[in-house]
Amino acid sequence: MATEHRAPATFDWQGRTYDAEYGHVLDSGESLVDLLAPRPGERIIDLGCGTGTLTAQIAGRGATARGLDISESMISQARRQYPGVRFDLGDAGTLPADATHDAVFCNSALHWMGAPAEVFGAVFAAVTPGGRFVAEVPVVGSLSDLRELLLRAWTAAGILGSPPPTRWHLRDPQVYLGSLVDAGLTVAAAKVWQRDRRLNGVSPRGWWSQYGPEVFQGLSESQRADVNAALDDLAPPEFPCHSTLLRFLAHRSRATASRHPSDA
Ligand SMILES: C[S@@+](CC[C@H](N)C(=O)[O-])C[C@H]1O[C@@H](n2cnc3c(N)ncnc32)[C@H](O)[C@@H]1O
After folding, report:
1. Whole domain around residue 27: which residue ranges?
2. The dihedral of CA 24, 50, 248, 211: what is its sign?
3. 16 CA distance to ligand 1 centroid (A)?
């Protein structure tokens, strides 16, 4: 049922403004689609598809692409933008465990999801033997400037302690790579790379309100206003937004239907 997969009321993505203001995660998306190398007729799921830009690119290469995302706002926007592509509301737990898909694709969304072991187990069950899993995800070391700025704004606003943890997880790349193997997926290629950019046109205040509104939840209205004012005061224009990204291509062994290669 759709409501089972709705993002918590305290948080949702803004599908209508995402592409213009926050679509930088798509900067490297096309080359990730190249790594996926979709072929005509293949059945491919874009997990955490957002507003569907990359799902549509996959479909544009002839595959039967389907987007899956937990956010109603993102799915609505994806459907508006790409009416010819199928988009469903759901999370990794709703991936069909039918081993009929040629690939699962995932750009900049794994860090929002729960334990990689569970997500990757669901991916394994969705793809055919030999099926691919292609993903990119920010890992530990990312966004240090933005986190440091938030801490400084916290202090400037006179709030004791540190900002609470975000809903997203900047994990060690080894956590992802080890979980792939544990799920029965063979890593064919993996790299960690750095992307340095600026928050062009988006202020750190706007960035935190989109990507980390939960850090403000325990604050009073006036504390929240003070932190936001400090974010504006402390941030130079074109604030840096550094990402350390893990990109990988994995596949399910052709030899076994088991989740564990050692069982083969
Ligand atoms: C940074 S956006 C990336 C969207 C898209 N892949 C892109 O490249 O533009 C992260 C997306 O992950 C989705 N998401 C977060 N947690 C999810 C989950 N557990 N299951 C499915 N989608 C999720 C969010 O709703 C959001 O659309």
Report:
1. 2-140+170-200+243-253
2. positive
3. 14
